[in-house]
Write a structure and sequence with these properties.
By secondary structure, the protein is of the alpha+beta class. The protein has helices at residues 26-33, 36-43, 52-61, 65-69, 76-85, 92-95, 110-115, 138-144, 158-164, 200-204, 227-238, 245-253, 275-285, 294-320, 337-347, 358-370, 377-387; strands at 2-5, 72-75, 90-91, 101-102, 107-108, 126-127, 132-135, 150-152, 178-183, 186-193, 208-211, 217-224, 326-330, 351-353, 391-393. The strands form five sheets. The protein has a seven-stranded mixed sheet, sandwiched between helices. It has a two-stranded antiparallel ribbon with strand order 1-2. The longest helix is centred in the C-terminal third of the chain and has 27 residues, at 294-320. The relative contact order is 0.12.
């Protein structure tokens, strides 16, 4: 999730993985320090145990000596920028996902940092995407065999870059007519707005306000996406059955629809040692028919995701007070034709799928904006629309 540097700008220890179990069950502990409503009012963020606030709180609770030695905290993208050019700062879009950031002031939240007794001095200045940081270090230029090269901040939260590459017309709105799903290991489903929405409705629905490129707000829900299926695929591979994606989708398409629907966001699925066993355990706990074949398991994962998308879609329509007309699906999951069709059917809304490499494209587009090769974020989206195939899925089997 982040790295900690000491006063000599040396990495103190290997960073914790954001799925590390030291944050399991931490929300109830955190709410004793600061009530849930107060944290949401200050940050506008969805509550997830993996958020940076809770990573740091776990280190403070456990008296981790690295926290006491820390002079600077660098989120993972910022850690790489430091390695590339030596500059230390925090990029805006990723800072906004930490639950240590105030989306109204667009600065670190002193109230949160103080309340949880975290060291204020470790938080670096926040910089905008599109900022040219510095040149690539000379020794790295030599290794790479290239000359002077600018290090440019993209939207370093991958969803921030991916949303810039959504091939929609228009940019920023208080009354949008489309939403997006950035579909990969995680699914991020939400709206692009002009301002954060921090109110009781958003809090109760556990949506999140995250900063986007170009002064936008990404009002979205984090959904455990293709992680479930990726982990099942890994489990099958470990048992000697190496199924590719096309084979898995083919097997799923032959199975009976809606046999088993699970909640992909159940804590049981965050970091299980074996996902197949976790799904079976969930089914036992909830009196469901556990998948018995590979195809049934794949169909369970995909249909459960489509059902979760439907729930979140309905909530997004409620938040904006109107029915959204289109769902843009970008990222690797946009290649999964069965999931796209299931989502169109479940949401009774057309899907526009693509581009696949939305995060990488958004990164390049921010570099083009920084270099003044293009003028606006709307120009960036026009380039995407003109450059990449987009597939449409019509709802046909509610």
């Amino acid at each position: 999730d982040f790295g900690l540097l000491n006063e000599d700008e040396q990495l103190i220890q290997s960073p914790y993985h954001y799925r590390d179990r030291h944050t399991q069950g931490i929300l109830s502990q955190a709410f004793k320090i600061m009530p849930r409503d107060a944290i949401f009012a200050e940050t506008g963020l969805q509550f997830m145990e993996l958020n940076s606030l809770f990573q740091l709180f776990a280190m403070h609770r456990d008296k981790d000596p690295a926290l006491g030695q820390a002079a600077k905290l660098l989120l993972m993208p910022d850690l790489f920028h430091w390695m590339l050019c030596g500059e230390t700062m925090t990029e805006l879009t990723n800072a906004s996902t930490t639950q240590l950031f105030n989306p109204m002031t667009r600065q670190w939240s002193s109230a949160i940092i103080d309340q949880f007794q975290l060291p204020q001095h470790i938080f670096c200045d926040i910089e905008q995407p599109g900022t040219i940081l510095a040149k690539l270090k000379p020794e790295l230029q030599s290794i790479a065999g290239i000359g002077e090269t600018n290090i440019v901040l993209c939207g370093t939260h991958d969803t921030a870059s991916a949303v810039l590459a959504v091939p929609a017309s228009g940019f920023r709105s208080d009354r949008p007519d489309w939403c997006y799903i950035s579909s990969g290991t995680w699914s991020l489903m939400g709206l692009e707005l002009s301002q954060p929405r921090i109110d009781s409705q958003v809090s109760e629905l556990n949506f999140t306000n995250e900063a986007g490129v170009g002064g936008t707000t990404r009002l979205l829900k984090n959904i455990s996406g293709l992680w479930l299926l990726q982990e099942c695929q890994r489990n099958w591979r470990e048992s000697g059955h190496d199924y590719d994606w096309a084979t898995l989708v083919g097997l799923a398409s032959k199975e009976t629809p809606l046999r088993t629907i699970i909640d992909p966001d159940d804590p049981l699925f965050v970091a299980p040692s074996n996902m197949l066993e976790a799904i079976a355990s969930y089914c036992r706990q909830h009196a469901l028919k556990a998948p018995e074949t590979v195809g049934q398991c794949v169909r369970c994962c995909l249909e459960s995701l489509a059902e979760k998308y439907r729930q979140v879609f309905d909530h997004l329509c409620t938040i904006v007070g109107k029915r959204l007309e289109t769902i843009h699906v970008v990222g690797g999951g946009s290649q999964n034709e069965l999931l796209c069709q299931m989502t169109a059917d479940a949401c009774a809304t057309p899907i526009l799928a693509g581009p696949i490499e939305a995060t990488a494209l958004g990164n390049v587009l921010v570099q083009m904006l920084a270099d003044q090769a293009i003028g606006t974020c709307a120009d960036a989206r026009q380039i995407v629309r003109a450059s990449f195939p987009i597939r449409r899925y019509w709802p046909n089997d509610r």
